[in-house]
Specification:
alpha/beta, nine-stranded mixed β-sheet, globular
Length: 282
């Protein structure tokens, strides 16, 4: 067992560089809460309550002024830094194909913050509400995690779909001890679960806890991805799939912790009204 890691030594990494094409705008900055909160404000608050004191937001450069202005509300509880996800931030000898404009995906987003992550970290999306239970579970796991250990705070599939269109979810399979044995990205999930998967199916909403050796392993995995797909104009490198490949090779072990409760998210514009109403009751 590794020595305990104090929460104050952890980093909250918030992936906030998305384009929000289906939502029609920068949903990571949408003031959807009753007091003008963004969804990531709740994660910052819950992490601070759990003792975390350092956060890194992975953003697009043009969003920096808006984030700086908005994050003044957290100045007394959380030191927030920014890392920019740039299309040309690739390890040598790889270069961006001339006509590529599509981002490289969430594995690349995490690596954009690599220099600002000194040790264990909690990684999550800016455009999801995770609930305090998920943050507490991630911090608790990292208190004793080994360098190559990962936790995914999982949610029930039925609690994460949208009535307004299909969503993508990483479906998780585990052994009897709760360790991940398989992960499959699905892009066609709707409330018609009876024709797809059981409602209780555990899925990843990209709420992760990384031991200190995981980000370097992701860097190696991303290099392998570029060897195979670096000339593609569209292929992305999703974080769940990268972690799944690392787990399959025995580089990391992933614990699935089914403690996610009350997830909220805005994939489509029509999702906003219900999410705002739910947040007003929290």
């Amino acid at each position: 067992m590794s020595s305990a890691t104090p929460a104050a030594d952890l980093t909250l990494v918030v992936l906030a560089a998305g384009i929000g094409s289906r939502y029609g705008g920068d949903k990571q900055l949408d003031a959807i809460g009753p007091a003008g909160e963004t969804l990531s404000d709740y994660a910052v608050h819950d992490a601070a309550v759990s003792g975390v004191r350092h956060a890194v937001f992975v953003i697009r450069e043009e969003l920096r002024p808006a984030f700086l202005a908005h994050h003044r509300r957290h100045a007394s509880r959380m030191a927030i830094e920014y890392a920019v996800q740039r299309l040309d931030d690739l390890p040598a000898p790889h270069l961006v194909p001339r006509e590529r404009t599509k981002p490289w995906g969430t594995t690349h987003a995490v690596l954009a913050a690599r220099a600002k992550i000194p040790g264990p970290c909690v990684v999550l999306n800016a455009d999801d509400y995770y609930g305090p239970e998920a943050i507490r579970a991630a911090v608790r796991f990292l208190g004793q995690a080994h360098p190559g250990e990962v936790a995914n705070i999982a949610y029930r599939l039925a609690d994460t779909v949208s009535p307004h269109g299909p969503v993508s979810r990483a479906v998780l399979e585990t052994d009897t001890q709760g360790w991940l044995t398989g992960i499959q990205e699905r892009h066609d999930l709707t409330p018609a679960l009876s024709r797809q998967l059981p409602p209780s199916t555990a899925v990843s909403m990209n709420c992760w806890a990384f031991g200190p050796g995981v980000v370097p392993a992701l860097a190696t995995e991303f290099g392998t991805f570029l060897d195979a797909h670096g000339q593609s104009l569209t292929t992305e490198c999703p974080l769940p799939e990268s972690l799944g490949r690392l787990a399959a090779r025995g580089v990391v072990r992933i614990r699935v912790i089914p403690e996610g409760r009350g997830w909220l998210g805005v994939t489509y514009p029509a999702d906003r009204e219900a999410v705002a109403a739910a947040l007003a009751l929290r």
